[in-house]
From TrEMBL, chain A:
The keyword Transmembrane applies. It comes from the Bacteria. It comes from Carboxylicivirga mesophila. The lineage of its organism: Bacteria, Pseudomonadati, Bacteroidota, Bacteroidia, Marinilabiliales. This is ABC transporter permease. The keyword Transmembrane applies.
Automatic annotation (TrEMBL), chain B:
This is ATP-binding cassette domain-containing protein. It comes from Carboxylicivirga mesophila. Residues 4-231 form the ABC transporter domain. The keyword rRNA processing does not apply. InterPro entries: AAA+_ATPase, ABC_transporter-like_ATP-bd, ABC_transporter-like_CS, ABC_transporter_ATP-binding, DrrA1/2-like_C, P-loop_NTPase. One of its GO terms (molecular function) is ATP binding. Belongs to the ABC transporter superfamily.
Length: 448, 311
């Protein structure tokens, strides 16, 4: 077996066996699945506990102006009860009591709600909304305009629902979700950033470890330094790809299991048709919560599927590898040059700068994926992996993708060559204060 | 026949000359000492032989032809600064390093078994390297170096970090390796071990070879014609007798007898010394004192530094 594959094997196996790798591999998909499930879940999570709230209206103007809901009941008490309510509201079965002390038009803060446990924001909103609406109406009525109700009704009937339809090349139309495309772009960009940074740093640490533990001299007596460096970079790249693939596979399986579960949930409760239909699942869901959740969830899944997932994955792998090779080789050079991590900061920062910058540019690209900044930075190799991935869900022109890919390939070949030279001299150099000038010397020296 | 030769090897670093036309001739199946003060260029030469770095000019002849890149499988190298992957298990790591030297996994395990039994270190197989003491790690490192039965072994300061018992064990192993046919090049500052083990030496100082040859020959060349004479009798008598052609450097009283260190002047010989004193004292023992490698090292290096500053 060739030596470089032995090195790759060692790097791969020792890392994949690590606890931290296994933990991350399991937690990742759970987080991703949660990101798809939670919005649906939250939507269905309404406060279902019944609450009785006592109201003492000292002005007498607002009687019954706050409407009861399914879960919220308001009891309008007489003035006599006001004295004792503070002591016995809980005994009488009230969760809280509301006191309106004065005319709210004059004193907007004259309404106060008292309770032992914190009142939820829904309850607060409900009360405020009802009172506001009543007062608004009161005010409008005070102008005494004829036919006002009709006018208001007319105004409120204006409602625009903008649908975004994506035209695909074969001319078919697909309903797309701008929000979802943006979320996909954010996830892609962040993942590239994260993977390049985490695994690039691992290359640096691994090389430093070999140098500090002094095993490097034994190994370079068996293989060429460049082979050792490339073996490590490739081995760690495979670890990253393994993690990514496992994430994709596990996320897809968790999501499809949930999909199946909620789809059946949604169709089993067809017995009583009380709630309005939520068509997304095709069944006739009745249990409000489960079906609402299932519908929201399935809706997200459908929209996710409307993105070009396979194409995105392929591009993701390409841009990850390109960006990783570019940065990992620079990190490798740093790792070889130094013998302790404390000194690394002054070299790591400049390497990380373009990577951090690319995240900021990607933020701009989410909003304006065809703007000058987004286009330029998706071409420049040091920022293109993150920025181009942020643009991918918005489907940039093919020629831009190709140019950016070629530039990236060219650049990582260049940085690997550069790093190889520094590495060769650096790994056997100990106790030397390393400066940029020194690195340049090594680079030139290795050329001979 | 020379197994390994270095011919006019030159190596420049960015701001200094590490090796200046250094030659080396290591006969097959010998133990060869590469000596020199710190920073003389020994490690650089060793790295060039191991193809870790290349020479700027000159060449290395291995077994009669120019050194080639796959010759690394026929060389075992124990560097001065050595280490192992701390988090890796001993056995796993030994197999990995052996495979890097071209052994198959199967052969590596078989041979490791032999060595681990020999050194009685089987219980370490599944331990992580960081759990072992430094001395234990050195043993593992030695095993890994010799495992693939290389024809040329290069040890850079092999005894540093070993306790006397293990250092002795290592010496025995080195001699055994020679007996098995290997050629051994080692660099050390421990002159005692040089005298014990080496057949030949090369002394490098300030990037240049300043002395080389067979160790017995060198010691003969640098001898001071000093005789150690153990006797019973009157010291004054012999000092009087020897005052013309000899110089007595020192008298010592050792249990029951006396010892005199006598320097032979002019053309006097051991025989003439015996003739002078044979009637006056009872000779217990007589031996020519050869200079230690330590003395020669210091003398030669100081001379070379002196001549350099004079130039």
């Amino acid at each position: 077996m060739s030596k470089i594959s032995l090195i790759i094997q060692r790097e791969y196996i020792t890392r994949v066996k690590k606890k931290s790798f296994i933990v991350m591999t399991i937690i990742g998909p759970i987080l991703f699945a949660a990101m798809m499930v939670l919005p649906g879940w939250f939507a269905s999570m309404e406060d279902t506990e019944s609450k009785n709230i006592a109201v003492i209206d000292q002005t007498g103007k607002y009687n019954k102006r706050i409407k009861d809901t399914e879960y919220l009941k308001f009891s309008w008490l007489n003035q006599q009860d006001a004295g004792t309510i503070a002591q016995d509201y809980q005994d009488k079965g009230y969760t809280a009591y509301l006191v309106i002390e004065d005319d709210l038009l004059q004193k907007p803060d004259a309404a106060k709600i008292y309770s032992e446990s914190q009142i939820t924001i829904d309850v607060k909103d409900h009360i405020a909304r009802n009172l506001e609406k009543y007062l608004e109406n009161e005010k409008l009525n005070s102008y005494q305009i004829d036919g006002l109700d009709a006018i208001i009704k007319d105004i409120h009937s204006v409602d625009i629902k903008l649908k975004t339809i994506k035209l695909s090349e074969d001319g078919s139309e697909k309903e797309s979700s701008t929000e979802l495309v943006m979320i996909a772009a954010i996830i892609f960009a962040m993942m590239i950033y994260m993977f390049v940074l985490i695994y690039g740093m691992q290359v640096m640490r691994g090389i430093m470890e070999e140098k500090v533990s002094r095993i490097v001299e034994v190994i370079v007596s068996s293989v060429k330094p460049f082979q050792l460096m490339m073996g490590k970079i490739i081995g760690i790249a495979l670890v990253a790809l393994t993690q990514f693939m496992l994430w994709v596979i596990l996320t897809v399986s968790i999501v499809s299991v949930l999909h199946a579960v909620f789809a059946s949930d949604a169709s089993t409760f067809t017995a009583n048709n009380q709630v309005e239909m939520l068509g997304a699942t095709g069944g006739q869901p009745t249990d409000a919560q489960v079906s609402e959740f299932a519908a929201g969830f399935n809706n997200i899944i459908d929209k996710v599927l409307s993105l070009d997932l396979i194409g995105s994955l392929v591009l993701f792998v390409f841009y990850f590898l390109g960006g990783y090779l570019l940065y990992a080789s620079l990190f490798a050079a740093i790792g070889a040059a130094l013998d302790n991590e404390a000194d690394s900061q002054q070299f790591v920062m400049p390497v990380m700068m373009p990577l951090i910058l690319s995240i900021y540019v990607a933020m701009a690209a989410f909003r304006n994926p065809t703007g000058d900044i987004a286009v330029w930075f998706s071409m420049i190799p040091f920022t293109s992996p993150v920025v181009m991935m942020a643009r991918i869900p918005f489907q940039p022109p093919i020629w831009q993708i190709i140019v950016s890919m070629l530039l990236l390939i060219g650049t990582f070949i260049l940085t690997t060559w550069f790093a190889g030279r520094i590495y060769r001299t650096g790994i056997l150099m100990y106790g030397k204060k390393v400066s940029y000038k020194e690195l340049w010397k090594w680079f030139k020296y290795s050329g001979r | 026949m020379m197994f390994l030769e270095a011919k006019r090897v030159v190596k420049k670093y960015a701001n200094h000359l590490a090796l200046n036309e250094v030659d080396l001739q290591v006969p097959a199946n010998s133990i060869y000492g590469l000596l020199g003060p710190n920073g003389a260029g020994k490690t650089t030469l060793i790295r060039i032989i191991n193809q870790i770095t290349g020479p700027d000019s000159g060449e290395i002849i291995f077994n009669g032809r120019t050194l080639q890149s796959n010759d690394v499988q026929r060389i075992g190298y124990l560097p001065e600064e050595r280490g192992l992957y701390k988090k890796m298990k001993v056995g796993e790591q030994a197999i990995y390093l052996a495979r890097m030297k071209g052994l198959s996994r199967h052969d590596a395990i078989k041979k490791l078994k032999y060595w681990f039994e020999k050194f009685e270190i089987q219980p370490w197989w599944d331990k992580k390297v960081e759990e072992l003491s430094k001395g234990m790690q050195q043993k593992i490192q030695f095993v890994v170096t010799v495992l693939h039965e290389p024809e040329l072994l290069i040890f850079d300061e092999p005894f540093s970090g070993f306790d006397p018992i293990n250092a002795n064990l290592l010496k025995q192993e080195i001699l055994q390796l020679k007996e098995n046919g290997a050629t051994i090049l080692f660099s050390t500052h421990n002159m005692g071990s040089v005298e014990e083990l080496c057949d030949h030496i090369t002394l490098i100082n300030q990037s240049k070879t300043i002395l080389n040859g067979q160790i017995d020959q060198i010691r003969q060349n640098y001898k001071d014609n000093l005789i150690k004479l153990d006797f019973i009798g009157d010291a004054n008598v012999i000092s009087a007798k020897l005052k013309d052609n000899f110089a007595i450097e020192n008298f010592e009283k050792v249990n029951g007898h006396q010892t005199a260190f006598v320097k032979m002047l002019h053309d006097s010989t051991i025989n003439s010394l015996i003739n002078e004193v044979i009637n006056d004292i009872e000779i217990v023992g007589l031996q020519e004192v050869l200079p230690t490698m330590n003395d020669i090292f210091i003398k030669v290096v100081e001379q070379s530094n002196l001549s350099k500053t004079q130039k």
